[in-house]
Amino acid sequence: MADVLLRNCPQVRILASSREGLGIEGEIVLRVPSLGVPRSDTSISADGASRFGAVALFVERASAADRRFALTDHNAMIVAKICDQLDGIPLAIEMAAARIKVLSVEQLASRLEDRFRILTASNRTALPRQQTMRALIDWSYDLLKENEKTVFRRLSVFAGGCTLDAATAVCSDVSLDALDVLDLLAGLVDKSLLVTELVGAEQRYRLLASTRQYATELLEKGGEADIVRARHAEFFNNLAQRAEDEWSRTPSRVWFERLLPDIDNFRTALDWAVTGRHDVVLGAMLVSSLAIFWARGPQPEEGRQRLLRAIAAYTSVGEAELEAKLTLALAILEMQAWRYEPALAAGTKAKELYEKLGDRRGEALAASQAAEALLRLRRHEEADRMLDFALQTFRELGEPRLISVVITRKARNIQFAGDTEKALQLYNEAIPYAKNTGDVELMGSITNNVAEAEFGRGNVERALDMARNLLPTLAAWDRIGRALTQANIAAYYIRLGRYDDARQSAREAIKDARPAGPITYAESIQHFSAIAAGQKDWQRSARLLGYCERAYKDLDTHLDFTERQEYEKLLELLTKELSADSLASLKAEGGALSDDQVYDEALKV
Questions:
Q1: Which of 212, 288, 340, 364 meets the CB 3.0–4.6 Å disulfide criterion with 390?
Q2: Do 87 and 178 share a domain, yes or no?
Q3: Strands 195-199 and 202-206
């Protein structure tokens, strides 16, 4: 009818809403997006949250259901999480908000795993398919063709979406080839059951959370869940292994940004393979291939815990190559957790295993990793011997990125030993290799180290300029790099007596310091202690330093040059200004503070 009307009445305009386009000449399709949702993994105030459409709708409907409800700074993050879990879908948000008359927001958030029982409408005049989320999705699913239903169910194994290659590998079989899957994906997009997102230069496909839960239930009932999940795990294991092979030849930013969109798929594959004990060998290969990704990515401790679970579950014998790979991965992630002795033990063992395999590259990687732990343990001569071996090997193999990494480690080792001038010479030697790789992150790491060396020489302004210029070049995902750079900037400002600037940088550092690791966090707190001392707030300074001392002792760590120098001056100053008993008492108070408590205390500076 619409087609006939438009052909015969050229001035007529039809505005229609539908689950899919009409497919007629002259039609312009406007996909109505979900409402805006704040990120649920970051803190947010009530004022900030209320600016998002999804939160505003939730508050409006929740207030209508219970006039006592109000959005506050206390519950804003929970409401944001609810809206995020519901993908900003207005109908789902309205149904959830209506439950506020019988549930608190905390209770509602915890019950959304059973969303199809929670999400029902109180409006009895609504169409039957609009009275529950299940009925709405039932209606859409029943209109699909059989092949569309098959692909829809299989797509439920993907967490956080997937690429066309991933969808094809997991969803195709003898009855569905790659072109069939592409056509069926397009059909599901047209029917508003699948969302497309352009990430970089690649299109990704994603089921919304409620739709995915529905599809998962159907996949389980259909009896093909294990087969499809095995294909999913195999695809992402292959992806991780290819990425591992390409790491030394690919700029860090390009490499990480290829993998980051699939972090939830890696987690899902590991949960199935290792936690579910469906394929422990595959899980061990997958988690060890991702060691560098975990170490430098957003959740290094998660990676370490997943690796430890895989090692505990892995009982195969005769897999010498996989054992070596797991051991090297352990050395990398133990080092990232600032656990120097376990990192050294794993690195040394990995070197021995690779030597037995005749794998010179693996042996050199393990030697370089063991040297990083030796450096931190102040065993500088041993570290230098390990690094010399690694450097010679990488030169013979023609690996410019790894040559740059090892020369940088040699420079840091010499710098830690006290020879700043020699360290600067080596940093300058590493720079051309890093530039040839086009790796911005590698250059940034060297720049950070050069700034520290300049600071050690007393060139504070030069160090500050270098660190400040580096900051805008750091990737959004590089939380460790941002935390370290901001912490260094804070230290440089403190040395210059610019305490307001130091406070601002320290506040930025502490945002990323906790995910970056306990030492980075403690060092960031130490900068707040130094700022407090600079403002003659001796008691708060002493409490904050007490927390740091306890953290350093618990982790058995040795501080970097800048933090060590700052710590020594700070302790000297507090000893001068406070009595011995008072200082000891205040430091004991600080040592008893939790991570959250010391965070609040630091922000009072």
A1: 364
A2: no
A3: antiparallel
